[in-house]
Specification:
Keywords: Cell membrane, Membrane, Protein transport, Translocation, Transmembrane, Transmembrane helix, Transport. It is a single-pass membrane protein. It comes from uncultured Sphingopyxis sp. GO terms for molecular function: protein transmembrane transporter activity. By secondary structure, the chain is mostly helical. The longest helix is centred in the middle third of the chain and has 52 residues. It has a domain of 71 residues. The radius of gyration is 40 Å and the shape is elongated. The chain contains 3 helices and no strands.
Length: 130
């Protein structure tokens, strides 16, 4: 877009040196550099905003397609609970909750005697557990 050949750049530097002078040229270059940095930052910010808007639009389109496909699948394969007659769960029809395993008499005797139940059939190779 802005194609600047090395000879054109050299011509611009020579003209700036003659017009501005060698004493003020570093200040002018610093000033131009600051403004170029600001312009690039604004362009980067603008481009990031456009990219974000495009991503959001694509996501909305994908969500719309997903919803349509999900609705089509749900119409084709309805849930069993939704189809036909469904009765509210009662205490008799509800499955019983799992109970804790029964405690054996040997475990009760060990706990009463102050001996903790043995947790390992074979002690570890490093030595007994603390």
């Amino acid at each position: 877009m802005f194609d600047v050949a090395p000879t054109e750049l050299l011509l611009v530097v020579v003209v700036a040196l003659v017009v501005i002078g060698p004493k003020d040229l570093p200040k002018a270059m610093r000033f131009v550099g600051k403004w170029m940095g600001k312009a690039r930052g604004m362009a980067r910010h603008f481009r990031a905003g456009l990219d974000t808007m495009m991503r959001e639009a694509e996501l909305e389109e994908l969500e719309k397609q997903w919803r349509e496909q999900n609705d089509a699948i749900m119409r084709e394969f309805p849930r069993i609970d939704d189809a036909g007659t469904s009765q509210p769960a009662t205490a008799e029809s509800a499955p019983e909750a799992e109970t804790a395993p029964a405690v054996t008499d040997a475990e009760v005797d060990q706990a009463a005697a102050g001996n903790p139940p043995e947790t390992h059939a074979v002690p570890p190779k490093d030595g007994p557990l603390p």
